Structure formats: C-alpha cells, structure tokens
Amino acid sequence: MEGSLDLELNKSKLPLIKMSSLHALVSMFIFAFLLAFAFHYFGQISFKTAILNAIPFCVISSAIAIPSVKNLTSGHKEFVIYESSLSDIFGVLFFNFIALNEFINLQSFGDFGIQMILIIIISFVSVLGLSFLLSRITHHITYTPIILLVILIYALSKVYHLPGLIFILVFGLFLGNLDEMKRFPWIEKFNPKKLDKEVAKFKDITVEATFLIRALFFMLFGFLIEAKEIMNTETILWAAAIVATIILLRWIMLKISKLPASPLLFVAPRGLITILLFLAITPDQAIPLVNKALIIQVIILSVLVMMIGLMTTNKKETIPIDETH
Fold it and tell me: Cys bridge to 24: 80, 87, 151, 260, which one at CB 3.0-4.6 A?
C-alpha cells in the first residue's frame, strides 16, 4: 500500500514504468530458472519444487529498498519504488501460481488469467466504493473503517485464492493519482478536493503503520537470528553465489537497458517478502538446502552490498535516469 501510494501514473512516467516493470519481471524469471536449475541439479529434486524454493530469492524487498533510497535523485528513487513494488507483486503471484497448481499446463494458465480478470473487476468496484465512502465520511473516526474494509477484501481474496495484492495495488494507485483523474467528469462524484485532503492524511497513517509493522517484524527477525546460522559454513558459499548472481544479472540488465549502473546496481536487497515466501513453503515442498541459515545469509549479504554501494556512491557522478534516454 505504501509503495503504490507513491507511484505516479501519467504519460511522462510511462517509459519509466515500462522499464521498471521489465526489469522486475525479466530479471525475476531469469534468476528463478537459473537458481531452480542449480537446486534441481545439486539437490536431485523435481524442477517444480526447485523453482518454488528459488522464487523467494528473486524478490526485491520494497520494505528495505524504498526507505534506503530517500536521498537519491528523484529519477533513481522513482525507478526503485516502481521496480521493488512490482517485484513484490510479481514474486507473490509467481509463487502462488507455482504453489497452488499441481500441474503447470494450459488449464492452469487459463485459470490464472480468469483469476486476474476477476480480481481486477473486484478491485475496481471495491476501490470506487471505498473512495466514495472515504469522501463522504464526516465522523471523526474516518480511517479505521476504511482500513478494516481493505483488510476484509484482501482476506476474502486470499480465501478464494485470488491475487489480493492486485487489489492493494489498484486501491493505492487510484488514491495516489487523483490529480491525474480530475479530467474525467465522473470523478467529481467523489468530491476530489475533499478526497485529496483525506488521502494525504491516509497516506501519513499508512506510512506510520507500515513503519511500525516493518520495525516490529525486523526486530523479531533479529531476535530470532542465531550466530551459528549466520556463520553456517554449509550454506555461506551458496549465499555468496546467489548474491553475486543477483548483482551480475542486475548489471547485465542495466547495461541492456542503458541505465546508469551507479547506484541502481546495488539496490536489490532481499528481506520481508523473501522470509514470508520461505515460511509459506509447505514441509513436503521444502528442500534441505533452502533452510533458515541460507535465507538469513542471503538477506544480510544483499543488504550489506546495498549499504556499502550506496555509501561509496558519489552523488555528483551519478547519472540521472532521464539523461540516459
């Protein structure tokens, strides 16, 4: 929600949106299949199980990436916001598609397409209803009912195995881009002037709540980390190889896209979504190689690479994205 509220949709942003979407999607698929092949070869497991265990390592953590680039130029910051937010969404959809389909065939792709169309329709109707409610509430308790309804719709989408993150994305994009929609006559029914003020307050609450949840999660994560897992010699080579491949693949993608490598090359941390997807793998689909130690090491190494990369980047020498196209 926080990331989608920050995304701007207008004609000037279309090249950036296309570029970041391609980066998030293409790099995810390439890395997922490369890592799955390695798991399949060395672990002697089915390729479907291998790719399911590989996906958590392919998702850029927007929870870590977005706050880390606040001091970068607007072009770099927007690219990271788009890329990491879309990476989260694509990663969860990709994971659910593999996990929920016993066999990957034309029927599974058809069912997935129907689910996407259905959730987009539900999202559009729900967003209009929630936005109308947000613009009409005059009670001093405004946002609690909205937040509860958002959670309810998201929970219902998960019960019926629909991609609930699409709803969150659509809801955030709609509220965050009201100024772009004022040219449509029907938007006046939502009292956009009042809604703009309410959205600004809602965004502040969302940022505060996101920070609280994120902080509590990482505090708990840090509390549960044991020194023996960080220094696990059986997985450290795998973790180093995974992070090195992430950086190499990212460098290739940036060069192909003619985007500046500095500082975007280093901003590919793994974090919250990686942990959640790892925990979502059922025991019968888990493999010994992908364990808690490997997850922790990959997260720590990727964050250290980002931290050192951003600290050593000379902002004066950074090439703006707009000047590369």
Answer: 87
Residue 323: DSSP 8-state: G
pLDDT at residue 82 tops 70 = yes
DSSP 318: P
Of 302, 210, 268, 214, nearest to 83 by C-alpha is: 268
What letter would DSSP give residue 61?
-
Query: Tell me, what DSSP letter sits at residue 302?
Result: H
CB burial string 13-23: b at 16+ within 10 A, e below: beebbebbeeb
State pLDDT tens for residues 124-142.
887 777 777 777 777 666 6
**What pLDDT score was predicted for residue 241?**
95
pLDDT at 243: 96
Q: Nearest-CA neighbor of 54 among 43, 65, 63?
A: 43
- Distance (Å, whole) CA 171 – CA 134: 12
**Would you say 62 and 84 are in contact if contact means Cβ atoms under 8 Å apart?**
yes
Distance from C-alpha of 195 to C-alpha of 135, rounded to nearest angstrom = 5
Give me the domains of the chain, ranges plus CATH numbers: 2-324 (1.20.1530)
Find the DSSP H helices in the chain.
2-6, 14-43, 47-54, 62-68, 74-100, 106-136, 143-159, 164-176, 178-181, 192-224, 227-230, 236-256, 272-280, 292-312
Residue among 158, 159, 186, 156 nearest 174 (CA): 186
Residue with tokens 């808690």: 292
Q: Which DSSP string corresponds to 166-178?
A: HHHHHHHHHHHTH
Calculate the alpha carbon distances from 169 to 10, 85, 88, 174, 301 in Å. Answer: 16, 9, 11, 9, 29
CA distance 158 to 55: 19
How far is the C-alpha of 75 from the C-alpha of 253, rounded, in Å? 17
Mean pLDDT of the chain: 82
